[in-house]
């Protein structure tokens, strides 16, 4: 998936911003405190990379003017909803895997007093009560079934699973409309990963590149055939540690005077790209290493901390002036 459009409501200084276009290379520019960082953090919230803090809720929320005109009874006020919505384009492989013919819209919402939810725009039952059957309790399912005239089939036990089954069958055949519904797991897992490099974190080209490659490396470890190999290794090394753990357990019991002390080591391999060798060459110059890049990097290159990963270096001002 690739994010191509963003809309934000009630997130920090972004009271109501609709249809921000996102291209493969996008530059956000503006004066201080105009919402550049807020936009990036809103994307992080949309993709589930950061929780919503109290300070993220806009002080200019849409419902504030309405609240000011209402009586002092707070219960009558509309709850503030923070919404970040994205439109995503899918590759041909994703369209085939997800069974979706075009782009999709996904939004993450925080509603005051209700919490956070991830939703997608899809064809949903016209009856709102039929849209989130799986989240209902058994008593709620029975009540809903009575309202829509659904009964258990002969031989079905009177349990939650049975009521869920018959109600979902009913919902599948009911009239539908385009509406927001809880995003299914296959949509959640297909959301892109955000690699967010702030000026105070991305200190060197090596740090940025290693972070990107490590994220991709860990994606490969989730493949079924790779996961099994890693699981086997973790099991083998856990077995090797058993004798060492038993000796350590006995030592702690003796030294600390415990009646008993348990120790169960768990081994987990998390692959990491430990280093990256990078070189770069300006036109007509030999390739040089970027290992020493900094405020005055090698061979006329400079690292600009806080820039996107695609802006690792630039020629010295003198060279740029000559080109002009």
Automatic annotation (TrEMBL):
InterPro entries attached to this UniProt entry: AAA_GajA/Old/RecF-like, P-loop_NTPase
The organism's place on the tree of life at top rank: Bacteria
Ranges that cross the membrane: none
Domain Endonuclease GajA/Old nuclease/RecF-like AAA: 1-63
Name of the protein: AAA family ATPase
Organism in which the protein naturally occurs: Streptomyces flavalbus
Species classification: Bacteria, Bacillati, Actinomycetota, Actinomycetes, Kitasatosporales
């Amino acid at each position: 998936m690739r994010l191509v459009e963003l809309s934000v409501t009630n997130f920090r200084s972004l009271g109501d911003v609709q249809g921000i276009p996102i291209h493969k290379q996008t530059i956000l520019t503006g004066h201080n405190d105009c919402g550049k960082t807020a936009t990036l953090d809103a994307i992080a919230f949309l993709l589930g990379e950061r929780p919503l803090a109290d300070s993220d809720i806009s002080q200019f929320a849409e419902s504030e003017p309405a609240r000011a005109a209402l009586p002092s009874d707070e219960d009558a006020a509309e709850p503030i909803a923070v919404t970040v919505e994205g439109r995503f384009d899918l590759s041909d492989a994703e369209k085939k895997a997800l069974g979706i013919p075009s782009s999709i819209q996904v939004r993450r919402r925080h509603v005051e007093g209700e919490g956070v939810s991830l939703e997608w725009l899809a064809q949903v039952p016209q009856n709102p009560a039929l849209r989130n059957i799986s989240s209902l309790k058994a008593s709620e399912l029975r009540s809903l079934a009575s309202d829509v005239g659904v009964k258990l089939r002969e031989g079905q036990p009177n349990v939650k699973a049975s009521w869920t089954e018959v109600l979902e069958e009913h919902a599948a055949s009911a009239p539908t409309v385009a509406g927001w519904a809880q995003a299914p797991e296959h949509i959640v897992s297909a959301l892109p990963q955000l690699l967010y490099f702030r000026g105070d974190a991305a200190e060197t080209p090596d740090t940025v590149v290693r972070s990107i490659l490590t994220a991709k490396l860990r994606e490969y470890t989730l493949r079924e055939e790779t996961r099994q190999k890693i699981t086997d290794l973790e099991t083998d090394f856990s077995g090797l540690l058993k004798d060492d753990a038993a000796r350590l357990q006995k030592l702690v019991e003796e030294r600390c005077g415990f009646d008993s002390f348990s120790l169960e080591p768990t081994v987990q391999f998390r692959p990491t790209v430990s280093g990256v060798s990078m070189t770069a060459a300006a036109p007509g110059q030999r390739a040089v290493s970027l290992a020493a890049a900094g405020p005055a990097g090698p061979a006329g290159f400079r690292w600009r901390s806080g820039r996107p990963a695609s802006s690792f270096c630039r020629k010295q001002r003198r060279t740029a002036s000559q080109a002009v």
